[in-house]
Predict the structure of HTH hxlR-type domain-containing protein.
Amino acid sequence: MPLPMRKNKGAPLPGPCSLTQCMAVISGAWAPNVIWSLRAGARRFSELRADVPPVSAKVLSTRLQELEARGVLIRNVMPTSPPSVEYSLTDLGRELIPALEAIVEVGHKLKQRQGLASTP
Amino acid sequence: MPLPMRKNKGAPLPGPCSLTQCMAVISGAWAPNVIWSLRAGARRFSELRADVPPVSAKVLSTRLQELEARGVLIRNVMPTSPPSVEYSLTDLGRELIPALEAIVEVGHKLKQRQGLASTP
DNA sequence: CGGAATCCCCAGTGATACTG
DNA sequence: CAGTATCACTGGGGATTCCG
């Protein structure tokens, strides 16, 4: 079975854009977790910290800023007596959820398949 | 490592497994690029190096070992005169492609949306 | 409560050279 | 061609502290 040996250097595959740049959308530690946590609706800063467990405030803050700048989520300041901030996914950010779910599903299958050892 | 103990106050999250662990399937530098490059078919070591551009042999080797151990791809040694090795996705690894494509699509939309905002 | 500023640290990455 | 071994380094992330 002869392989199609392609020699394209710059754009080897019909990819719409550089995968690396697109993956950067969910780059940074806990960024997927933040999106994952927001998939059920808006969450506040402390709620996100509780959801993602071992995330420091600094990193969470940085991540939220980055994700907001990327257009993945929006920041909503509630003018309450104790100031609170709500974060929620944009419509585009919401499109990432199926992707994450797909990865989760594969990770799930992979885990149980490894448990079965090698039995084809 | 402490696993997330969610309290589900306002948002019940029916997560099948820890997202972090599932995301680990594509963790490591250039791992998504390797999968992406393999989505069109089997590739050899040097082809992958050419596809992924700035990846060192060491890292690519490490990544390939990890991805093989995770059951994402398989390694096939061809007994030719110049020894060559082919890598190709497993069926489970192939399931990651739609996920990556979804991310790419969102990244794409995000880019052109940002382009409209910043560069009229 | 939310988050900005500061310091510290090490895992992961890259470059080079060597082997089969 | 397909790796492995060694070393040095960077920057992303953690803990802490202070501000609005």
